[in-house]
Amino acid sequence: MRCFRKRSAIPILGILIVCLLCMNLYIEDEYVVEEDKHVRESSTHNLGSDRFIHTIKNLSNFSSSINVTYQILAGMPLSRKKYLTIGLSSVKRKKGNYLIETIKSIFEQSSYEELKEIVVVVHLADFDSAWCDSIVQDISRKFSHHIIAGKLTIIHTPLEFYPMLEGLKRNYNDPDDRVKFRSKQNVDYAFLLNYCANLSEYYVMLEDDVRCSRNFLTTIKKVITSRKGSNWVTLEFSKLGYIGKLYHSHDLPRLAHFLLMFYQEMPCDWLLIHFRGLLAQKDAIRFKPSLFQHMGYYSSYKGAENKLKDDDFEEDSFDIPDNPTAILSTNMNVFENYETIKAYSSTEEYFWAKSPSSGDFYHITFERPHKINKIKVCTGTEDRQNDILHHGILEVGERLVGNKKDKKCTTYLRLGDFNNGNFEMENIDHKVLFNIECVRILVTKNQIEWLIIKSISIWTTDPVN
Fold this sequence. Notes:
Distance between the termini: 35 Å
CATH topology of the largest domain: Spore Coat Polysaccharide Biosynthesis Protein SpsA, Chain A
Mean pLDDT: 81
Number of helices: 10
Strand content: 25-35%
Helix content: 10-25%
Number of domains: 2
Shape: elongated
Order of helices and strands: HEEEHHEHHEHEEHEEHHEEEEEEEEHEE
Strand order of the largest sheet: 1-2-5-4-3-6-9-8
């Protein structure tokens, strides 16, 4: 893992944010170019430069790609856009090399159908050409069929496109070599993101020493489906550094520019936090269990020991709810920004309402009817164990009426009561004869305590997409 030290915040962060807000996420990135001679093994994204030259004479859109020429060392993505690009950048380590095992984990933990929707891009970001050649040969021998199928591409960005990496600002009182390491790392990732911008709908960032959970793509797709209709910049599938951070691909050019703009200011994991904040996602949206685990023992920085592990990681496939796309509503007095959506996912967030009264409800209306096998609702949290639903029932309904924004079912069937703040029932499709269009949590008695709905999980027996 290449960014792992905790650092204290300093005032310069606020200055940078204000600067960016004033610029409205626009900057001019002009790279003086020399005519490309179309050398074999080179691919051009708005063609690169004689040297990294950054000017601000005119403002250009942050959404435009960075002018840089890549060397394609192996493979070539197919023309059809995939669902997910998995990007990782790798450099030569003084101790250990986990890149092959990381690539192996990605492919082995994916099903045949999942592999149709995945493309892996490896950025060899080291300037030792002999090391790059040996890595390419090794990967090509072990994963030739994936390379031929367009599922794996290896790229390299020549040194001439990199900005100055010597004599940089020593923020956080880091030694010069560490400043150079983390600054170059930001540029490595900027070039990787820039290359991947048009390959797929979504992009997930990994490191070169990561183990994957089985069928991670299926889980990611379920989570994205459950967030349909909500605005997000980053979804997190690991709590470590920048492992498992998911983005919309259309945001990658802006993120690449952002990393380049502040490449010498702070580590990449800090920059990622500020990026999503500037795009109006204040809090992290992290999902559990984690889908990716750090497996490296030695850091790529000086080969230092790095034993960090994600204790929320589960390698084997697990029972992730489908949570079909739905409209959520409530008549309860919601506390601050603990909205309904925060209960209808596997994030660490939750719905929180002030003392509910008898007849209050939390309502879920699906976009279309579903056969539901299992429903599980958990209320309260470890630190607020009394903020549970003390008296309530769960109902399912059919026969929708009303307009698009305010649909309700006319007929409800009571499935059961909440017990100690929780509800769980399986084999619902064997007990309920109709396709379910609504799920309703109904408060049956006034309570003084506030109500936290920590999670609502719904499993269907039909496709949710």
